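To: structure subgroup
Subject: Chain for Friday's discussion

All,

I'm putting the inputs and outputs inline so they're searchable in the archive.
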Amino acid sequence: MKSIIFFNNKGGVGKTTTVYHVAWMLSELGVKTIAIDLDPQSNLTSMFLTPERLEEIYENNLPITILDSINPVVSGDPYQPVHIENISDNLGLILGNLSLSVFEDKLSDAWLKSLGGDSYSFRLTSIFNTIFNEAANKFNAEILLIDVGPNLGAINRAVTISSDYIIMPVASDLFSLQGIKNLGQTLKKWRIDWNDRLARKPDNISFEIPSKESKPIGYIVMQYSAKESKPVKSYLRWANRIPLVFAEFVLGSVTDVNDVEQDRNCIALLKHYRSLAPMSMESHKPIFLLKPANGAIGAHVYAVQKSYEEFESLTNNILKYCN
């Protein structure tokens, strides 16, 4: 099992939409996949589920969100297996919860106390690792795709140290570059701090401590405008700075690449499928599976076919980068 977190501390870059489409494409390719919604906004959950199913779950407080596996551990009770919502034969979903943000303070406190070797604090910090492993075994999943909020808080720290790989969806603007810098520097600090805590962990614990590599494998440029479409100069100005910033602040290396299309750390350049996005949201389908019954007619048919090719290429690249 491989766990991949899609992470950028700048919001609005299309991170959740990318997780949704990559999860669907993996299932199309026959890869058993679980999408995990760890953004307290729970947008990934709402993309997958119909309004009727969302109302059934959240209006009736059904105990099937990720928080229902976390809360018992917070209370010092036995861990409760996580619910996996079946989306298709190859695709499952772990549901988000808006109240997940309340867990931030508990995790911050546990992070501090784990420096003293406190067993309960290690158990709390390891909760996402426990959930990931249990869910993967139950669903027989090969890939876990994890969506997190755009922040550098305690939840994202605990998720990151429990993940194998990190992918950064980015836009072509000043603030996305700043987001890459912030995240790269923070990831290095989290790794140092966690290694420090691992040296202090108790010997008598009965649960698995995260020992993931948390390796950044590249970035995806969102809403990219190809050169032949004559984008404004400011767009390429920011896009072509991404290779240098990613290499320096995330990988700790240097590069002489100043063209994002030539950068080996660029997993994909995704276009903006403007007219297909509303159809996708309304039908609760990825854009590449839209049918005429969903409104994909005329010129949209070609756009749907093209989007399938692009997301298939992106997904195969992710699998290749994660080897």
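Points worth raising on Friday:
The chain has a mean pLDDT of 90.
Residues 2-235+265-275 form a domain with the Rossmann fold fold (CATH 3.40.50.300).

D.
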